[in-house]
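Hi support team,

I submitted a single chain yesterday and got back a structure, but I'm not sure I'm reading the token output correctly. Could someone confirm the output below corresponds to the sequence I sent? I've pasted both exactly as they appear in my results page.

Thanks,
R.
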Amino acid sequence: MKKSAKTIVVVPMPGIFLLDIAGPCDVFMSANRVLNEDPDVGSQGYELLLASPIDTKKIVTKSGVGIDCPVLVSEISKPIDTLIVAGFSRMELQSEHPFFEWLKRIYPKVRRIASVCIGTYALAEAGILDGRRATTHWEFSQEFQLRYPAVNVDTNPFYIRDHNVYTSGGVSSGIDLALALVEEDYGQRVALNAARKLVLPLKRPGYQSQFSTLLQVHSLENSIAGKLHPWLIRHLRETLNVECLAGKSNMSVRNFTRVFQKETGLTPAKFVEKLRVEVARKYLEDSDLTMDQIADKCGLGGPVSMRRTFMRHMMMSPSDYRRSFRTSLQT
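Hi R., thanks for writing in. Yes, this is the structure output for that exact sequence:
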């Protein structure tokens, strides 16, 4: 006799990307197809239930596509195996919203709980992530860490498991997470075949850092770094030590270093290194320049030095980055 299906409740937040829920849901349904095609598997797979966190059963996504949820979260009466919170809306769900109390109550009753993208905010707001390691969309990492200092934030991985709590990064990372959950439940073969049906890799290479912006220059507009930025871009080939930068800013080295680090959170040397990597990324994406030429233009030494610096910041080599992110308009 086959085991009963595992109930997965997906909670779509107002204003989410459609892929936040469509990706994971399609992975679980693909796994069901694989399980149904194998007569030796003693399981019915997954049963999906969409549940609204607010007082209406219709959730509107960023694309304008509406999602009709059969139930509100407060109406769920059956046991939940896995609860997935997809996305988050700080506009509609303030700290006092009853959904967070519901999360606190339901968490001890589920086998595992997960979030997709900034659904991490909901788990953190409910106190579920306190003292745990978690990830979220790279763009929100600093804000998230400031808001929830009790959470150990790491936005490099696509997803993180800490005991029975799972968090994932940007929107498409929900797919990576769902495949990992399938593999955990039914093994690598089922997860791999489910991924193949969707023409996906079972495990995506790399890290979120491939997609992140190393420097938020727009937020530094009125800082020393912001004022130096245009000049730095034009002089990356040169020796840009702290003495040089302090002199350019008409400040003493000691005062320059103190103010610079206070404004950016980075030492001048680390800022320059990140800037060189950012410019190198653009050359890798948009040009046919060789590694030697890019390393020279960006002041990264030779190809070996550039590779070492790239690996430290991007978790991948310059050549791998070029293969992954070079403009699709080039042939």
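A quick pointer for reading it: Residues 6-209 form a domain with the Rossmann fold fold (CATH 3.40.50.880). Let us know if anything else looks off.

Best,
Support desk
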